[in-house]
Amino acid sequence: MTKSPETTQFSAIPRRSGDRLRPLIVFGTRPEAIKMSPLILECTRRSDEIDPLICSTGQHREMLDQVLGYFSIQPTIDLGLMQPGQTLSGLTARCLTAVDAVIQEQQPDCVVVQGDTTTVMVSAMAAFYHRLPVVHVEAGLRTGDLSAPWPEEFNRRVAGIVTHMHCAPTQRSCDALLAEGVPQQNIRVTGNTVIDALLIAVEKERANAARWQEKYPQAMAESVVLITGHRRENFGGGLAEICSALVELATSHPETQFIYPVHLNPNVQGPVHEQLGSIANIHLVPPADYPEFVWLMDRANVVLTDSGGVQEEAPSLGSAVLVTREKTERPEAVDAGLAELVGTNRELIVRRVSELLAQHAGGTGAKVIENPYGDGHAAKRIVDWMVGV
Ligand code: UD1
Ligand code: UDP
User: From CA 359, how far away is CA 364, in angstroms rounded?
Assistant: First the structure.
């Protein structure tokens, strides 16, 4: 990796004025909001040390607002960038101009981003143009293949090039950064804030079960499969294969309820409703609010997903996790035997879901299992590092 002078010489975040660190925390999509929320809550608790500016790009709208409401987070700045059916280039261009203007106006001490979306890549780039330090939360996840996940592997690597503080969730992600030439002093293994968020939500939503049972009576069946899917590399043929596997599974397992909160991307909504809309035991529902989604994961015997965040969360709740991707930048759960890659191969999906339903008949238990991605204290470690502890 080519190192920028700022990266190699970095030691602590310089403060422009006052005693408190003034980071610009930027996010734009549902998963970023879920994973940033514990960090923002930790900053709020430590308001004597840190004075964050909270900026939503609004890359997502409904799916983002669902999360902010749950964690009672009110962005100081909302750029409202989402357009229906937005293109990668269109969003990138609008986001760069808008985040640049925020930095110019607010003059923060640093920019904090989380993950691998367009918002992340562009905000890190805007910070670089302003010569500001970048804190990258969930740094170092790699498949080594720019086409999977696409375009996220590219986004995460671009953000990494200009990052000063790499918050690696696991030792494996730390090792990937070291192998690319990032100095050890610029990396800390913090755990993933997704587990902080999950631990906030899970006990609360178990206590709210009566409410969610009323909303999702299908989830009270003995046998439940929860599905999510939105990866761009699966659009078209891959998604069609997954749907055709679901049709076969729903027919061969009439007692099993298949609950599928469908992502709002029109490239997902259209094909999924067309192929699965009329099957009695397949329930296509709108994106679930985070707390109810946590409860649904807790209820599911099997989770079939191409989501990054769901791969990290579901193993905690004892569900069998099948990942509809050929490669994952989160191999820790696979290595621990808590998840399995099935790609988009119809026959393999049908076979593995059927086998797992047989193995997990009668439920998965109500324990929160130790999770390879975090221990629930990632946000504290990240804020400690940012303020110089
Ligand atoms: C984005 C991220 C992806 C992340 C996913 C999380 C990029 C390139 N992709 O993908 O990494 O895994 O979010 O869900 O950053 N839409 C709505 N309302 C919403 C959200 C989306 O209507 O609340 C529709 C809009 O038509 C929008 C489209 O979905 O144009 C696509 O949204 P976009 O953020 O560009 O991509 P995602 O597929 O959601
Ligand atoms: N999620 C949610 N409602 C849903 C599906 C997912 O709240 O209907 C949550 C899930 O718990 C996880 C996050 O959204 O924390 C994952 O987001 P997504 O799959 O959209 O993106 P990815 O993680 O793949 O980037």
Answer: 10
CA distances from 290 to 264, 299, 306, 312 (A): 15, 14, 17, 14
Which of 300, 245, 239 is CA-nearest to residue 265?
A: 239
Verdict on whether the full-model pTM lies above 0.90: yes
Q: How many helices (H) and strands (E) does the chain have?
A: 16, 13
In testing the pocket of ligand 2, which one of 192, 215, 293, 329 has its CB within 8 Å of the most ligand atoms?
293
Which residue's C-alpha comes closest to atom 24 of ligand 1?
A: 265
Q: Could you give all domains of the chain from N- to C-terminal order, each with its CATH number?
A: 23-192+374-387 (3.40.50.2000), 207-361 (3.40.50.2000)
Which tens digits make up the pLDDT trace of 218-274?
A: 999 999 999 999 999 999 999 999 999 999 999 999 999 999 999 999 999 999 999
Query: 364: pLDDT confidence band, cut at 50, 70 and 90?
Result: low
